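Problem 12. The chain below contains 177 residues. Write out its predicted structure in token notation.
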Amino acid sequence: MKKGMVGSWQIDNLPIPLQFMAFADAYLDSGDRLCKVLSRSTRKRSYPRGAVVLFLTYHAIELFLKAAILYRYPKEGLHHNVEQLHNRYRALYPAKRYEFIVPFKTEYLGFEPSQLAEKKRSMPTQDKVNRYPSNKKGEVWDGVFVFEPNSFQPIIAQLQADFARLKNEIFKQGAAQ
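Solution.
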């Protein structure tokens, strides 16, 4: 084995929820590091790199939510919809001490209820917009998407603080209500 090599054996002995948590921390840390690079370097700053920061952060939240849900309810059927995962998390952890803000909420303003359902169906999910420049048909996403690293850095910092607090609250204390 090569010196410095890392492998899945580092987390194989952890319960599945804590494996998800380890990945959530890694994705958030990686997003934080890239965001800091983009904050400092206008040469490296680009929308594709900003989209990577957004994807890493979004995926970290998804994995955190899955970790918490699986810890409480190991047989839960999981998916990739962060908004629905967050709703399930809040149902399983309703106490105020478990609250945190998920920054990837989509708001639909100015639509009638009948229009709203169609708009929600036709809009790409955040994880797709931040992973791919276009849809499966090769059409660019409808809308304008932006990223500004200096204003996103505090959001990542808050998520890091929330993850640390909630990890302690949920996993180390047995998630007692």
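Discussion. The first helix runs from residue 16 to 40. Students who got a different answer should revisit the alignment rule from Section 12.3.
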